[in-house]
# Entry
Amino acid sequence: MNVLVVGCGKVGTSLCNILSAEGHDVSVVNRTADAFAGLSPDFNGYTTVGVEIDQEVLKSAGIESCDALVSVTADDNTNIMVAELAQKFFHVPKVFARINDPSKSAVFAELGVQNTCPTELTVATLLSALNENKATDNVCIGTHTMVFTEMKVPKEFVGKRVSEIKLEENEVIIAVEHKDRKIEGALLCRKELEQGELLIFAKFVD
# Structure
């Protein structure tokens, strides 16, 4: 898959490194070049420096031929504008965006852009971790309902990295609870999974 990532902060960097390691064709855009220093030495994608909402910059980064675009800059308005450009002008098949302010979810919903809100995901994850019964939690994100579930690492996952696990459609591992009870975001988890750890799943159900 040919993926264009807009924004090379911590999230963008981790996403680029994982996608590249999985064999995808990755191109990343960032306003400053120093952010690319965090990319893995094994990253074999392309980097483009420029203003994220500049159409010529996006063209240089390969937006016209990408299969999916993910906008994960730190600015919600930039992510909204990039998503709108990707859909309306470049007709990118799959567009995803990060949104930090939950109140802006409606804007993304109107655009038909799939989005994830770290604020809501963090709250939901913490609620799930604090739930002694380990029950499933349902959280409304924009116009969608996301189900959060915890499960012990099954035998077939032991020794694998999160990026190596194949899941059902619309399902993703968002965090790992280690045996010392510390919770680590899935994108940042580089170690192999161990028996006794917990996986926190998220899945859109509507």
Remarks:
- Residues 76-88 form the longest helix (13 residues).
- Residues 119-204 form a domain with the Alpha-Beta Plaits fold (CATH 3.30.70.1450).
- The mean pLDDT is 80.
